[in-house]
Every structure is written in structure tokens, then in C-alpha cells.
Write a sequence for this structure.
């Protein structure tokens, strides 16, 4: 018997529907001839609790830290025991097992850890499905790979899981127990990813709170040239009182110049004219879609993920959504007309876009070299029944279709002009843009750039008609939103202060993964560290106090970004999981010495931030704390609820 283990029931049903010979339903499985399809329910297993290694660690004690398992153990999740028993029975009868987890790091871990936990020693194949439509599943079933080829991906996922456990257990216990000494009665959760994300928001909120606005004074002049009129802006030199962005911070020089300008004659000293071509935005990765949907529709990252899962699993309208890739396989190009025609069938807006598509075009989106285990989000070709879609589902579906459709539109062509005029010995600059061919842009409701300038000739004379001084005020940084925070997590190198670390980070290095970023934000909200105020994400007093009291290495992104880079190296086969864990343990040992009840007490008393709702408590209930024994170190760290991982 061949046993296929899917990640979830919806995937199992799609596989069974594509197998020959009909199907026979039974508890926890579907029998299709000589193949049986069963499923997980998300993670059936979790990292064992500390007391599984040593009963003494059921009590939270500073002098027991760090807790580092010698041989790692997994334990069944409470609600998964029944399905695990089904798989255990079936796997004993199997001559071959097919791993059908989602095509990503976590999907590889989720099924493979079950296979290994049940001590299966037979052959294992890998089934990669990114599209639940029957033809796509049938094609995938004909292309089974050896699961051994995905061992580096499993090792990276396993290293991530163990790292989260080590970091979460130890640092949460340390700061929770230190918090009790400081008068805080509650768990202070610290995580390998969640805490640097919280740190980003706290530092942004502090910058906003501490910001002192000041005025600056831009000067404009309306200039007459041979074939029209335009507005230019003064470029003051370093002789003037300027801020670090070159803005004039005293009004008097601007007023004096403005009074002299009307009627002044000058010339066009510099002229740059160029035609620019801009290709369409690439198809979406999950994070890119979350950013756009948050900006356009105000949707949270978690909402976008949930909607995508529904469009993928329930409606079968889009391909696998938890993708970090923005490219499509080259073999999909000949099928694109058919899939887009099907996707647009029942929607007037999409149908109108389809009419303008030129399927003889080929964009850079079709690139096998850029496609890994999964590809960009794309429509499956199934016609949408918009009567069964929610408004949000329809909005997100249109975005996914649009970005693939845009690959069959020509580039946006513009003519851009930059001009510098000299009047009264001063420089004034203007820029303009005219659209030569809108290309793909009508599919995107993006705002227009600078309006066009009249035709200009290098060196031509000009005359100032009018001038004026505006008074503006500097503005603080914008608070993070779901969109800007997801973007920051994707491009974390921009927030890394250490130049050496920044140089080592690749453009793709980030905090968290496509599958986890939305959940990290929601976890911080649920634990009382963040609140949503309209679209903004703001830190609470508790979140601000925790970041203030933690070592900066825990709350800044440098270390975690490098860890994510090392995890990527493990997944690519160039990294060592054991060396990664050893480095993490060494880091922990240093961090645990820095828990300080006095510093935490002061932070809790002085913290600024939003009032937060009480964090949600887990149903597992009571935690056992033990006061420090006399003479025990007062600077040791880590804590968390039984059996969970604190990312």
C-alpha cells in the first residue's frame, strides 16, 4: 500500500480526487485503490516541555537556566492524538510513503517529523503541490521526487523550531521571573523574532514621541520660458541656514530673495531629458500582496493570509499562497492565456483588463532560475463565482489576477525632464514628466508623478514672473502599519545599524518568513505588547517597558536577521544545523546574565505607550514559580507556557 500524508484535509481531498479508481472514505483517511491518503491537522507534534527532559524544570527557576536538551524530544499535541493514531496504524501497513506537505520549510517539517516520530524506515517520496485544481494535482502526482533531496530544508525547519524553543523558554522564564522580583505579576514573553519586531515599533514610537517639529521655508518662482511657463524651487547653498536635508530653516533669506525675483532675467543652465521604460510590477509573493492589500484596503496581514488560504483551499482560485517568490515557471507561460481567461470570466473589471492583454509579450516574470520550491501567486484558471466570495476575497483575488495580467502589457514609457535655472546668481530646479505610453499603468491606480514641463532648450533665456515663500513644518516619522511593518520585516537590512552586519545581509534576508509574519504581528497584539489604533500599530506601556529592559541584542534585528540567513544557508545545503544551535546557546548564556530586576522595575514605572488590553492567557493555566535560592545568580534568563515556542 502507498500512503500519502498531506499537510491538511483540504489538500488530502484534492489529491484523492486526482487519483484513479474512485475513493472510499474512512476515519482519518481516503482509500483510492492501492493508495491511501491521510492527513495532518497542521502540526501534530510539538517540542516537548522542559519537564520531559528533567522533572525539576517544571518549576520556573532562574538557577536552572539555560535549559538545553541533550537529545531533543517531540510530544503529540493534545488535540492531535486521534489523527496521529490513524497515521500510526496506516504507516505500519505502508510499503511506500509520500510526503505531501506544503512546498515550504514549515511544510517539510510538519509531515517529515511525523514520519520520523513513527519510526518509518521505508522509502519516502516528495509530492509538491502549489495548485489544488485537479489537472495541476495530476501533474504533480506524475512528478514525485525523492524526499531525501529535501533533507536540508527539513534540517533548516528543525533548527528553526529548536531555536525558537531555546530562545523562548530560556529568555521568557528569565525575564518573567525577574519581572516578578520587579513587581510585575505576569508572563513577559520573549521570542527570537517577535521581540525584534516589537523593538522596531517601540523605537519608531519613541522617535515620534520625542520628535520636536520646526519650520522650514521653501521658495518657489514662476518662470516664463520661450514656449510656456513653469514653477521651479530654490536650491539654497551651504551659505544659508540649512538642516541636514538641505531645507532652509530661517525665513529671512527666502523673503529677501523672493522680493527681488519678479522681473529678474536668467537662463536655463542645465537640462536633462530622457525616455524611461518601467516594466510592470512582478506577480505577488505573499508579503508583497499583504503590503499592497493593507495600503489599498486597510487589511491586516493576518486577514490577507486567511483570505489567501480560503481562495487557495476552499475556492481553488489561486495557487499556493505562502510563497516568498515573485516569479513564475516558464512552463506556465503557454498556459497563461487560458488561465487568465478563466479567471476573468465573471468579472467586468477583469474582463476589461483581459481585452487589453497582448499574449505575444513575455516579461521577466517567467524565469525558472528564480523559482524555488514555490512560485509567485497566480490564478488557477478556474472561473470565480463572485456570489460565493466575500467582498474582501474578491478584492484580493483581483489583485492576484491583475499582477499576472500586467505581465502581458507593454512597459510604461515616460519622458522625464530635469531643469536647473539660474536667476540672480541662485539655482532653481524644476522637474516634469509626460506619459508616452501608459502600458500597464491603467491596471494600477497609482498617482501621477510631476506634471509635464513646456518644451525647453539648453541655454535659453528665462524671466521670473512671480515668487513666494511657503512655511512648512517638519513631520515625525509615520507610525508602523501592517503594510509598512511587513515591508520592514521583508527588508530588515534597512533597520540594521551595524555596518558590518548590513554588508553581509542579502536583499532577501528578513525577519520571519512569508508564512509567519502575519502571525507574529497578531501574537504581539494578543500578548498585550501592541494595539491597533485605526491603521497604526502602536506599542503599549508593557511592550515599551520590556524593550527598554532587555539587552539591545535581543530587541534589535541584527542577530535574528543573521540567524535567518544561516537558516537559509542550511536549507540550501551550505550551512550546519548543529553549529547554528551551538552559536545560539552561546548567545543565550551571555544574554541570561543581563536580566536585572532593578532595570525592569524602573522601565515598568516610567514606560510610555498606549494602554493595552490584558494579554490573553492560555487555557493550560497555572505556572509554577520558585523564588531564587540564597546565593543563586540574580542575572539568569527565559520563560514560556508549557510546550509552546515563542518566536
Amino acid at each position: 500500500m502507498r500512503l500519502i500524508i498531506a499537510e491538511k484535509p483540504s489538500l488530502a481531498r484534492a489529491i484523492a480526487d486526482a487519483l484513479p479508481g474512485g475513493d472510499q472514505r474512512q476515519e482519518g483517511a481516503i482509500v483510492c485503490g492501492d493508495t491511501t491518503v491521510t492527513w495532518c491537522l497542521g502540526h501534530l507534534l510539538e517540542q516537548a516541555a522542559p519537564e520531559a527532559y528533567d522533572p525539576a524544570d517544571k518549576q520556573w527557576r532562574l538557577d536552572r537556566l539555560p535549559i538545553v536538551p541533550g537529545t531533543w524530544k517531540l510530544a503529540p499535541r493534545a488535540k492531535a492524538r486521534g489523527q496521529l493514531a490513524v497515521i500510526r496504524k496506516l504507516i505500519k501497513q505502508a510499503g511506500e510513503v509520500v510526503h505531501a506537505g506544503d512546498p515550504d520549510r514549515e511544510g517539510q517539517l510538519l509531515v517529515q517529523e511525523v514520519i520520523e516520530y513513527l519510526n518509518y524506515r521505508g522509502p519516502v517520496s516528495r509530492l509538491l503541490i502549489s495548485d489544488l485544481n485537479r489537472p495541476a494535482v495530476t501533474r504533480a502526482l506524475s512528478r514525485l521526487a525523492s524526499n531525501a533531496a529535501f533533507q536540508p530544508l527539513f534540517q533548516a525547519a528543525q533548527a528553526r523550531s529548536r531555536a525558537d524553543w531555546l530562545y523562548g523558554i530560556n529568555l521568557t522564564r528569565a525575564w518573567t521571573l525577574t519581572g516578578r522580583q520587579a513587581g510585575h505579576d505576569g508572563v513577559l514573553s520573549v521570542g527570537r523574532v517577535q521581540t525584534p519586531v516589537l523593538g522596531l515599533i517601540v523605537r519608531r514610537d519613541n522617535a515620534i514621541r520625542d520628535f520636536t517639529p520646526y519650520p522650514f521655508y521653501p521658495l518657489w518662482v514662476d518662470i516664463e520660458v520661450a514656449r510656456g511657463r513653469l514653477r521651479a524651487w530654490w536650491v539654497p547653498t551651504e551659505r544659508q541656514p540649512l538642516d541636514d536635508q538641505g531645507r532652509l530653516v530661517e525665513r529671512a533669506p527666502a523673503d529677501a530673495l523672493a522680493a527681488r525675483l519678479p522681473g529678474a532675467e536668467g537662463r536655463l543652465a542645465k537640462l536633462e531629458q530622457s525616455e524611461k521604460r518601467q516594466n510592470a510590477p512582478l506577480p505577488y509573493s505573499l508579503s508583497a500582496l499583504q503590503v499592497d492589500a493593507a495600503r489599498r484596503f486597510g487589511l491586516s496581514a493576518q486577514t490577507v493570509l486567511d483570505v489567501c488560504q480560503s481562495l487557495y483551499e476552499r475556492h481553488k482560485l489561486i495557487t499556493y499562497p505562502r510563497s516568498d517568490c515573485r516569479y513564475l515557471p516558464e512552463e506556465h507561460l503557454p498556459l497563461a492565456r487560458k488561465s487568465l481567461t478563466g479567471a476573468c470570466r465573471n468579472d467586468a473589471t477583469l474582463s476589461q483588463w483581459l481585452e487589453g492583454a497582448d499574449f505575444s509579450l513575455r516579461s521577466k516574470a517567467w524565469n525558472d532560475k528564480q523559482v524555488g520550491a514555490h512560485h509567485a501567486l497566480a490564478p488557477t484558471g478556474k472561473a470565480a463565482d463572485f456570489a460565493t466570495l466575500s467582498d474582501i476575497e474578491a478584492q484580493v483575488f483581483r489583485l492576484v489576477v491583475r499582477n499576472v495580467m500586467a505581465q502581458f502589457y507593454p512597459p510604461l514609457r515616460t519622458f522625464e525632464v530635469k531643469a536647473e535655472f539660474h536667476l540672480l546668481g541662485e539655482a532653481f530646479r524644476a522637474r516634469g514628466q509626460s506619459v508616452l505610453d501608459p502600458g500597464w499603468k491603467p491596471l494600477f491606480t497609482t498617482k501621477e508623478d510631476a506634471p509635464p514641463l513646456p518644451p525647453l532648450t539648453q541655454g535659453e533665456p528665462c524671466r521670473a514672473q512671480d515668487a513666494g515663500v511657503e512655511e512648512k513644518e517638519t513631520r515625525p516619522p509615520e507610525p508602523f502599519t501592517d503594510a509598512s511593518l511587513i515591508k520592514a520585516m521583508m527588508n530588515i537590512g534597512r533597520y540594521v545599524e551595524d555596518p558590518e552586519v548590513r554588508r553581509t545581509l542579502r536583499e532577501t534576508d528578513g525577519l520571519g518568513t512569508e508564512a509567519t509574519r502575519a502571525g507574529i504581528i497578531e501574537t504581539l497584539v494578543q500578548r498585550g505588547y501592541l494595539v491597533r489604533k485605526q491603521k497604526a500599530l502602536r506599542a503599549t506601556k508593557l511592550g515599551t517597558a520590556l524593550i527598554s529592559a532587555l539587552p539591545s541584542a535581543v530587541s534589535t534585528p541584527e542577530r535574528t536577521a543573521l540567524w535567518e540567513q544561516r537558516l537559509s544557508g542550511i536549507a540550501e545545503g551550505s550551512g550546519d544545523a548543529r553549529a547554528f544551535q551551538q552559536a545560539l546557546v552561546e548567545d543565550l548564556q551571555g544574554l541570561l546574565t543581563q536580566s536585572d530586576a532593578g532595570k525592569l522595575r524602573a522601565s515598568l514605572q516610567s514606560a510610555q505607550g498606549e494602554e493595552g488590553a490584558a494579554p490573553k492567557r492560555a487555557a493550560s493555566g497555572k505556572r509554577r514559580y520558585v523564588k531564587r535560592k540564597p546565593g543563586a545568580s540574580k542575572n539568569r534568563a527565559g520563560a514560556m507556557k508549557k510546550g509552546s515556542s515563542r518566536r
Q: What stands out?
A: The two ends are 39 Å apart (CA to CA). Residues 553 and 587 are 10 Å apart (CA to CA). Confidence is low (pLDDT under 50) at residues 617-646.
